[in-house]
Structures are given as structure tokens and as C-alpha cells.
Amino acid sequence: MSPAPTRRWWAAALAVTLVGLVAGAGVALSGRALLVVTTTRLPVALAVGGLALGAAVLGVGALRARRAAALAVALAGAEDAGRADERARHRRFLARLDHELKNPVTAIRAAAAGLPPGDDPAAVRAHATLDAQAGRLAHLVADLRKLAELETQPIEQEDVDVAQVVRDAVDDVCAQAAAGGRPAPAVRITLPTVPWPLPHVRGDVDLLYLAVVNLVGNAVKFSPPGTPVEVRGSDEDGAVVVEVADSGPGIPDDEVGVVFDELARGRDARGTPGSGLGLALVRVVAERHGGRATLRSRVGHGTVVRLLLPAGAAR
After folding, report:
1. 8 Å CB contact between 16 and 36
2. Residues 205-217: pLDDT tens digits?
3. What is the dihedral angle through the alpha carbons of 24, 26, 32, 34, rounded to the nearest 10 degrees?
4. Which residues belong to any copy of the Histidine kinase domain (predicted)?
């Protein structure tokens, strides 16, 4: 055999070997199969060796990919199970707390009602304080019971006009301020009308109203008198968004992560009336409708809370 054909055969053999290596590595990286067929006799061993090595690379890559996928699935399952267990334990705690507090609070209120304070000014003040705090505790117990039931009880499945819910909630918050002799809050509503109005959602209109009225009430409560509160509606990729922005003191960064927890009260909010359950209720309502609640805040500027609800979905 002449030197020139021999060189060509060896060159072909090396080329096929490299093709085999690249094919195996390429399959491992991209998941596509490549079949290389050669009819030469001398370089067959080299070609087969290259393809075999490529197949080995493919096998190792596929094995690692399967292991990584299995690990990711296992971790996700463990996280979901952990969250479900945590929520179940939390519901049991709320139920026990309601049970343990309900009877003592009822007894305290009955005793206070049966003990007139008389004419002593100090006794009158003490009686008024006792009655007010017992009433506050009773309201807190009722809210805890409502929250625990909301997490487990079935909810209504009906067509809900979110825009109308927003308007009703704002009207009621303003009416409550007027009834209490407070200045009318400066609430501005912005709802889309073109090219289409705010979509409807499926769910419980009373619960959605409760969530929105809590958001608007909180914004008014924490905003200085006369400063604006904005309520905005939008449609974002199939999600109906209700956004409530206030001009309040804002929430420190280290408290933003816990404001949706039950009984959460920030350092700057402890002198403001409230139970710390409003945002927790908003979170649960959003989750029961397949959505979520989020919050952004800047200290000294204000807070924006967003209620996101999938259009036409509830569970």
C-alpha cells in the first residue's frame, strides 16, 4: 500500500475517533444521539474505541443528571411536607389558643358587667380599663378563630367583580372614618377601563372584601391625616392585582419578612390600635384563592401591599 493512502486511512481513523469522543460528549451535554458508521478496516479499532469512550462519557453524564433530578425532587418534596406540617401544627395551636382563652374572657366580661364601679373616680377608670381590655381580648379570640377556620373551611366559588369589591371597601373605610368623627381619608382609586376593565375572579366575595378592606383600613390608619392613599387595580399576565399604597412611616427591613404572620406587630405600630391579624388574614385569603400577598416598604416613605389573584381560579 502506498504511503499516501496509508496516511489518509490513519487520518480518517483519528477523525472518526474524535467524532466518537465529540459525539459522546455532545450527547451527554445535549441529550441528542449521534450514529457514526465507518467502512474502513484498519482504523475500525480506533473508531470503536472513540465511540466507546464517548458512550462512557454519555453514561456518566446521564447518571449524574438522573441523580441530580432525583435529589431535586426529593428536596422539593421534603420542603412541601415540612411547610404542610408547619401549617397543620400552627392551625392546631390557634385552635387550642381559642379554646383556652374563650371561657376566661367570657367570665371576665361577665364579672366586670356585674360589678358597678360606684362613685370612686379611680374605680370608674379601673372598671373602664378592665371592660375595654376584656373586649379587646374577646375580639382577638374571635379573629383567631376566624383565621383558623378560614385556613380549612371550604370557600364559596362564585364570579367576583374585584373592581366593585375595591370600590365598596374604600367607601366603607371612608364611612367608618366619618362615623368616628375623623377627617375623611384621601383615598384615590385607579382601575383600568381600556382596553378592558379589571377581570373577574372565582372565589368568595365576602372574604375578598374582607382582605381589601383590611388593606385599605391599614393604609388609612398608618398614614398621617390628609396624606394620600392609593388603591390601584391591574391585570398582569392573567393575575388580577390590587395594590394599596400608603404614606405611612414604612416598615424596617428586619420586620418585612414577618408582617404576614399572626399577631405580628412592628416596633413602630405598637402604639396604634390593632390585633396584628389583618395582614395574616389577607395572606390566608389570597392563598385560599390560589394567589399570594406581597409587600414593599421604605422607612419614612410608606408601604405598598399587593394582593395577587389568578383570574377565574379558586380552591
Report:
1. yes
2. 999 999 999 999 9
3. -50
4. 96-313
Helices 44-113, 3-30: inter-axial angle, 10-degree rounding: 10
Distance CA 38, CA 53 (A): 17
DSSP-derived secondary structure for 50-64:
HHHHHHHHHHHHHHH
Grid cell 398614614 in the structure block, residue: 223
Summarize pLDDT for 89-126 with one digit per residue, the tens.
Answer: 666 666 666 666 767 777 777 777 777 777 788 888 88
Percent helix, strand, coil in the chain, to 5, is 60, 15, 30
Sign for the pseudo-dihedral over CA of 226, 228, 206, 136: negative
Can you identify the CATH homologous superfamily of domain 156-310?
Histidine kinase-like ATPase, C-terminal domain (3.30.565.10)
CA 12, 15, 16 angle in degrees (round to 5)? 85
Which of the 8 DSSP states describes residue 199? P
Decide: pTM greater than 0.70: no
